[in-house]
């Protein structure tokens, strides 16, 4: 009977308030199967893409399935990681699991902005904090583009540049930007999509002290802009000299590689 209710819900998309109680009762009697996997995946989509409220008990079941069934599904993995990224504190076993899954995603070239929530548990790439991410949630399999402009002064530019988003998880679309100090991203989404769009601002483009190291030229340029704005002329001159030397070394190495 419970299985019939779950199947009917998946087929009709008519979700009632008690469906998670029915599912919890069902999983006490049956631990695995296609119906369970289908429900876990659909509920994960509801949480990650549709931003619906899902009972915490559901994620306990999802976590258990991921741990015991050796089942890998990007939608379920991403939804569970999002849920865990919002927890104030993770248990030791959760930290181990999160570290393994986040590193696996990054190895595949998938850096989800909410991974930032794991920075005290996982050694994350600097680019994850350097970039500004535009994220849109919609139906899976779409081609989504939007128009944008970069504001670097008082005047607002026209949003006349076009950017195409990448679907990194079914229904979860992303586009990343590098913004320097004093720059703002202005964008216009397709009609009706603005309310499903979130911008994750860069956390890495901040001024650095003279003794700090720079992992790339973007960070150095950003720091130089900050020095210029606040009138630190001598520091700016020193950094320009350092930047020119770094650029010359990079160009020389590139020529040797040709």
Query: Spans with pLDDT under 50 lasting ≥5 residues?
Result: 206-212, 252-257
Secondary-structure element sequence?
A: HHHHHHHEEEEEEEHH
The number of distinct β-strands equals 7
The quaternary structure here is single chain
Spatial ordering of strands, largest sheet: 4-5-1-7
Distance between the termini: 68 Å
Determine the strand fraction and express it as a percent band. Answer: 5-15%
- Mean pLDDT over the residues: 81
Commentary on this structure:
- The protein is an alpha+beta fold and 258 residues long.
- 47% of the residues lie in helices and 14% in strands.
- The protein is built from 9 helices and 7 strands, in the order H-H-H-H-H-H-H-E-E-E-E-E-E-E-H-H.
- It has helices at residues 2-12, 19-29, 34-48, 56-68, 74-85, 92-107, 127-130, 217-229, 233-257, and strands at residues 132-137, 145-151, 161-164, 166-169, 172-177, 184-188, 197-200.
- A 4-stranded antiparallel β-sheet has the order 4-5-1-7. A 3-stranded antiparallel β-sheet has the order 3-2-6, with no helix packed on it.
- A hairpin with a 2-residue loop joins strand 4 and strand 5 (172-177).
- Helix 1 (2-12) crosses helix 2 and helix 1 (2-12) packs across helix 3.
- 19% of the residues are buried.
């Amino acid at each position: 009977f419970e299985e019939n209710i779950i199947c009917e819900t998946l087929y009709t998309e008519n979700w009632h308030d008690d469906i998670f109680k029915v599912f919890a009762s069902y999983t006490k009697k049956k631990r695995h199967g296609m119906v369970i996997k289908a429900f876990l995946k659909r509920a994960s989509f509801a949480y990650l893409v549709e931003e619906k409220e899902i009972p915490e008990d559901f994620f306990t079941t999802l976590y258990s399935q991921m741990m015991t069934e050796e089942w890998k599904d990007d939608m379920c993995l991403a939804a569970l990681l999002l849920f865990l990224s919002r927890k104030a504190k993770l248990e030791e076993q959760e930290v181990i699991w999160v570290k393994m899954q986040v590193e696996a995603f990054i190895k595949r070239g998938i850096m989800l902005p909410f991974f930032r929530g794991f920075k005290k548990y996982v050694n994350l790439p600097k680019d994850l904090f350097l970039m500004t991410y535009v994220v849109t949630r919609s139906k899976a399999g779409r081609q989504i583009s939007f128009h944008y402009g970069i504001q670097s002064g008082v005047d607002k530019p026209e949003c006349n540049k076009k950017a195409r988003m990448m679907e990194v998880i079914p229904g979860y679309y992303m586009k990343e930007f590098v913004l320097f100090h004093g720059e703002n991203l202005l964008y216009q989404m397709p009609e009706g999509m603005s309310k499903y769009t979130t911008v994750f601002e860069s956390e890495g483009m901040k001024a650095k002290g003279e003794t700090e190291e720079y992992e790339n030229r973007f960070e150095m340029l950003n720091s130089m802009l900050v020095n210029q704005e606040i009138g630190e002329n001598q520091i700016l001159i020193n950094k320009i000299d350092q930047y020119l030397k770094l650029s010359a070394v990079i160009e020389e190495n590139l020529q040797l590689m040709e």
